[in-house]
Amino acid sequence: MNPTVTKLPSADALLARIPLIGRMLAAMLLLCGGLLALVESRAAILRSGTEVRLRTVPVDPRDLFRGDYVVLAYPMSIVAAAPGEAKGLRRGDTVYVTLARDAEGFSQAKAVAAARPAPGEGEVVIAGRVLSTGACALNEAGQADCGAGAGRLRVAYGLESYFVPQGEGRRIETVSKARIEVVAAVAPDGTAAIKRLLIDGKLVYAEPPY
Question: What are the boundaries of each domain within the chain?
Answer without folding.
Answer: 11-45, 49-206
